[in-house]
Amino acid sequence: MTETSYFSREEVSKNDGKNTSKIWLIIKEGVYDVTSYLEEHPGGRELLEEHAGKDATKAFNDNGHSSDARKKLESFRIGQLQADDLKNLGSSKTSTSAPRVVEHTEPAQKKSCMSTISCGLCG
Ligand code: HEM
């Protein structure tokens, strides 16, 4: 079993290729170490370096990555953002309301033609 590591945005931002030789990216709630992918990335190393230590969710999505690219992305996952920082996700919807419970009400009693004017076919 692999345990999930949680990182703060601050911790991720330190891995920007300058302070360390590592390059980490945030994509959605995941944290990815793409250091070993710099040379291989078909979009070039510059784009990864540009987002080093930062949230690259929009950049990743805007560049129409294939499902293969998404699978590959998961192979670089080292953990995820800690709960406190998830609240600041640009793309997250802030829904605090509990799921709506729809009350099931009995349908209004059907009127039968017997109770009003007889149609002549029933009863
Ligand atoms: C770990 C993160 C990433 C992975 C695994 C990844 C993977 C890939 C792969 C496999 C391709 C080839 C086309 C495809 O299959 O979709 C690709 C292309 C591309 N990627 Fe990424 N990518 C990552 C992050 C990024 C980021 C952050 C950007 C930022 C702008 C980016 C920009 C591009 C661009 C522009 C192309 C097109 C290159 C071309 O067609 O010449 N990628 N990427």
Automatic annotation (TrEMBL):
GO terms for molecular function: heme binding; metal ion binding. The keyword Iron applies. It is a single-pass membrane protein. Pfam families: Cyt-b5. Residues 89-98 have a biased composition (Polar residues). InterPro entries: Cyt_B5-like_heme/steroid-bd, Cyt_B5-like_heme/steroid_sf, Cyt_B5_heme-BS, Cytochrome_b5. The keyword Endoplasmic reticulum applies. It comes from the Eukaryota. Residues 87-109 are annotated as: Disordered. One of its GO terms (cellular component) is endoplasmic reticulum membrane. Keywords: Electron transport, Endoplasmic reticulum, Heme, Iron, Membrane, Metal-binding, Microsome, Transmembrane, Transport. SMART domains: Cyt-b5. Residues 4-82 form the Cytochrome b5 heme-binding domain. Belongs to the cytochrome b5 family. This is Cytochrome b5.
